[in-house]
Write a structure and sequence with these properties.
Keywords: Oxidoreductase. There is one protein chain. By secondary structure, the protein is an alpha/beta fold. The chain has three helices and three strands; from the N terminus they run βαβαβα. A three-stranded parallel sheet has the order 1-2-3, with helices on one face. The two termini are 20 Å apart. 20% of the residues are buried. The model has no long low-confidence stretch (mean pLDDT 90).
Length: 79
Amino acid sequence: MKRMSGRTALITGAAEGLGKAVAARLSEEGARVVVIDRDAAAIKRASAELDMADVTFRQVDMMDGDALAATLAEIESAL
């Protein structure tokens, strides 16, 4: 059994760099991963690069409280 099986990780700003690497590693360890970033183009690239069934990508600006709340509610209901 993998260390993160049955757990969910929400990573913000994770479409590039360190966040993307953390998302990939957590997925490898068995976690369901939700990647949030405001950059739609970066999300699209990351989605293609991290083609894993247990990684979900959402484009949202963390500074937009209403959009963030709606995205979090959507993610929670999907779990």
